[in-house]
Amino acid sequence: MANPISVLNHAADNIRILAAASVEKAKSGHPGGAMGGADFINVLYSEYLTYDPKDPAWAGRDRFFLDPGHMAPMLYSQLCLTGKFSLEELANLRQWDSPTTGHPELNVARGIENTSGPLGQGHVLAIGAAIAAKFLAARTGNPTFAKETIYAYISDGGIEEEISQGGARIASVLGLDNLVMFYDSNDIQLSTATDVVMNEDTAAKYRAFGWEVIEIDGNDVTQIRAALDAAKKVQGKPTLIIGKCIMGKGALKADGSSFERDCKTHGAPLGGDAFRNTVANLGGDPDQPFAIFDDVKALYAQRDEELAAIVAGRKAEEKAWADANPDKAAQLADWFSGKAPQIDWSKVVQKDNDSTRSASAACLSALAEQVPNMICASADLSNSDKTDGFLKKTTAFKSGDFSGAFFQAGVAELTMACCCMGMALHGGVIPACGTFFVFSDYMKPAVRMAALMEIPVKFVWTHDAFRVGEDGPTHEPVEQEAQIRLMEKLKNHHGKNSVLVLRPADAKETTEAWALAMANTATPTALLFSRQNIANLPEGNDYSQVARGGYIVAGSDPDPDVILVASGSEVSTLEAGAKLLRADGKKVRVVSVPSEGLFRQQSPEYQQSVLPAGVKKFGMTAGLPVTLQGLVPASEGTIWGLESFGFSAPYKVLDEKLGYTAQNVYEQVNKLF
Ligand SMILES: Cc1ncc(C[n+]2csc(CCOP(=O)(O)OP(=O)(O)O)c2C)c(N)n1
Ligand SMILES: [Mg+2]
């Protein structure tokens, strides 16, 4: 029997009171949007969202992705009604050590599917999760994945962010009918009304993208239900429900007049008497606003019972599938455990003197064959970034056909990154995505979020240096390595380097780097690969040492007069320079440091044995000199790096002109003596 509308409205008012009260208590936060969106989220959670209250990580659950993180009080208040947060925790919004953080942080046990805050990314994470659900349905045949609905909640800010275009395009071209997005269209944003900055017809825009669009009053229970019912029936395309919502619904000012539709409620407590008037207006007790109404408690207790029956049915279907497919079921359990896959790396045969991007293709080819839950993506560069090594072993996703494992993202690096992160958040899949290193700049906001959420996406960035010179300086990364290596230095909340960054020095180091990337289930990994061929490191090199982040390359002299340090292709330039220095009788050690972050995690004794203090050092990097500053102290030597943007020319000419030659290594090192 349908819940009485009066009870649903009462529950939404309860959410409004709790959201406003938590912001009031914290003396900071965003009440207005939360109060406007309360009706939608309440209908969704009390009547539609399918999840297991006793098993929040259940793989087959519907998922709710919040894009506007500033609307955290709405989500926390909603999750308080479903028992995932206590009233006390709501009262501790934004406080030290409280689970009710300023913007929601990934916490599946508490019902939070994603960290959100930077507007726009959150709804594209949902799109990635919808892709993962389609993929798992196709790959496993487990009927539960075809029944999942991924709900996204977006606001004006997310619609304005450029990434919404990428997300809208991908969701449509892939026919994601398991995606339902609610747009809280309240015509107000932080500093202005929305008409000051946008005048497009958003419904027409999404229809043009190929979405089903339903327009409703976002504060009306009957219309919300009708829209959700309709959305669930749509086939072959995603649905956008545009809900006209009232910012600060129910809010009153200190003088008792309406405080609705006012920018001032966007990001500040209602304040004093305005708060008290508002709570009273919504049927609460201004002296005890942190309370759940009895009929609302009953509403959610009843929903728990309904969910128990729904989930029991779904889990019975899953069990029937698992009984009929025990091997697949065991495999699926493994995929959702998040464990690193078993990979036989001996199947990867590297060519001598190959580029590391091509060596990466050899690895990806093996991964496509051996890791059935891996998804690889490229932003329209698969034949250049060599993710085609993977693609050649599978097919790309198409609307209605998710039997392959390759995601053609189009030219949209940030969208691609967020989709891949959303896939990982869904669980059960291992995503990797590729583009040119210089375009990592378009992905930085997502990489930072992946690092914060500890999502083990593999970022494949090729064309790692100025040696793409024919394309001109726009395509030549210079400062990008220094930037991503800063993320190696930034620790996540578990005290780990927030990103693992690996820049291998030759083809065989590339295999080791991919092995480390696949073993890394704790953080994102960045893999930096060369466009050009690189001479193999000397015969007898112990490649297992790559796992230590930095190591002494084979053929190095004992008791060296000088230590040459680099990562990536510059190591081979140092090797060539070392030959000239040795001809003069100098004893030379060459050290390859594919990951300074990993190297700094080794014992001090090991670090000291590789780079002993007091021995002269010379570093060479195709990036900014600062890239190597942690390894080559100014007191012990010099660093040859690129101090300016690159130039247009064939790479061999650039190597000569910019000093990336054996002869220059020889000359620069001699200056140290
Ligand atoms: C990428 C990004 N830019 C800027 C902000 C700062 N910011 C937070 S909310 C907001 C306005 C959002 O307006 P809207 O989405 O309509 O939310 P409402 O005011 O309706 O709650 C801005 C600019 C942000 N969180 N993320
Ligand atoms: Mg708004």
Q: What would a concise description of this structure say?
A:
The chain is α/β, with parallel strands linked by helices. Helices cover 41% and strands 11% of the residues.
Descriptive labels:
673 residues, 41% helix, 11% strand, binds magnesium ion
Provide an overview of this structure.
It is a single chain. This protein has 673 residues and is α/β, with parallel strands linked by helices. It has helices at residues 5-26, 31-48, 72-81, 87-91, 121-140, 144-147, 156-160, 163-173, 202-209, 221-233, 272-281, 294-324, 326-337, 356-370, 388-391, 413-426, 444-453, 480-489, 507-519, 570-583, 596-599, 604-610, 651-658, 662-670, and strands spanning 63-66, 150-155, 179-185, 212-217, 239-244, 374-378, 406-408, 430-436, 458-462, 500-502, 525-528, 551-552, 562-566, 588-592, 616-620, 637-640. Helix 2 packs parallel to helix 3 and helix 5 (121-140) packs parallel to helix 8. The termini are far apart. The mean pLDDT is 97. The structure holds thiamine diphosphate and magnesium ion. The site of thiamine diphosphate (TPP) has 17 residues, from helix 2 and helix 7. Thiamine diphosphate binds at residues 30, 32-33, 68, 70, 117-119, 155-157, 186, 188-190, 247, 266.
Please give the radius of gyration in angstroms: 28 Å
Low-confidence segments, given as residue ranges, are: none
The helix count comes to 24
**Average pLDDT, to the nearest integer?**
97
Total DSSP E strands: 16
Structural class by helix and strand composition: alpha/beta
Helix percent band: 40-55%
Ions, cofactors and other ligands present here are:
thiamine diphosphate, magnesium ion
Strand content: 5-15%
Oligomer: single chain
Strand order of the largest sheet: 7-6-8-9-11-10
Shape: elongated
C-alpha end-to-end distance = 88 Å
